[in-house]
Amino acid sequence: MDAVEVLAARGIRAEIVNADAMQLYRGMDIATAKLRPEERRGIPHHMLDILDVTEGSTAAGYQTVVESLIEQLESEGVWPILVGGSGLYISAVLFGFAFPARDPELRARLERELENEGPDVLHERLRQLDPRAAADIDPANGRRTVRALEAVTVTGQPFRASLPSSEPVRPTRIAHLRAERALLVERLDARVEGFWRAGLLDEVQTLRDQGLEQGTTARQAIGYAQALQQLGGELTEAEAIDATKLATRKYSRRQVSWFKRYVADEPAPNAARDWIASVLD
């Protein structure tokens, strides 16, 4: 939001477009760190709370909606600022992923196998079909493994054939800010502990009543998956918190790896405001 305010001071209208895949879901607020309306400083935020937890979400679907939204904002003289850490979703919009044809029956079968057999079995199958894709994908990331298997099976080509070009499809500025690893881990662990103090378990119970466990995307969200296990008696609270900390740390590493291909690291605490001002000069 600092970016919007810096731009506003220079007479440029800007609005926020959410690029966190889990903040798309209504009611998934605490463990997604979704800003409450009163925390948004009066700045319009798009792509928040647009899906029920029973609905699936894909980067291709996000790409279609957000590309249309960006065109609308630009026609109104508004600069869209994508904010979030879902690398595939962001890259799909910025770099124009050409998503391969889908096979709903194949996807459904792969998702059933993921549910019944776990991610390791599918990852091994991907390794046999496309070793390079398997090397790039975390074996624990079952959804991405399913996407890759579907693409390889449908197209008969390596998964990388569907990756985007290295140039954005429209004029773009990218800022990727991160702290030193030790400080980041400390902050992440504290934030996870705060989720439980803030009432995550009650939130997840409410969402479970709304069908969270049937939501193929939402139920896998970090924090929510572990809270569901706690509610189901599979984990104690301490175990659920520790599992969420571990998953969060691993995800943050993948985020750093994803985005560093586009920008240099910039750990300075005031880098966002300084960077925005510098690119406008």
Keywords:
single chain; mainly alpha; Rossmann fold; 3 domains; three-stranded parallel beta sheet; P-loop_NTPase; IPT; nucleotide-binding
Structure description:
There is one protein chain. The chain is mostly helical and 281 residues long. The protein folds into three domains: 2-97 and 167-178 and 265-280, Rossmann fold (3-Layer(aba) Sandwich), CATH 3.40.50; 104-162, Histone, subunit A, CATH 1.10.20; 181-259, Crystal structure of tRNA isopentenylpyrophosphate transferase (bh2366) domain (Helix Hairpins), CATH 1.10.287. 52% of the residues lie in helices and 4% in strands. It has helices at residues 2-9, 59-75, 87-95, 104-117, 119-129, 131-136, 142-155, 181-197, 200-209, 224-231, 237-259, 271-280; strands spanning 14-18, 45-46, 79-83. It has a three-stranded parallel sheet with strand order 2-1-3, with helices on both faces. The model has no long low-confidence stretch (mean pLDDT 89).
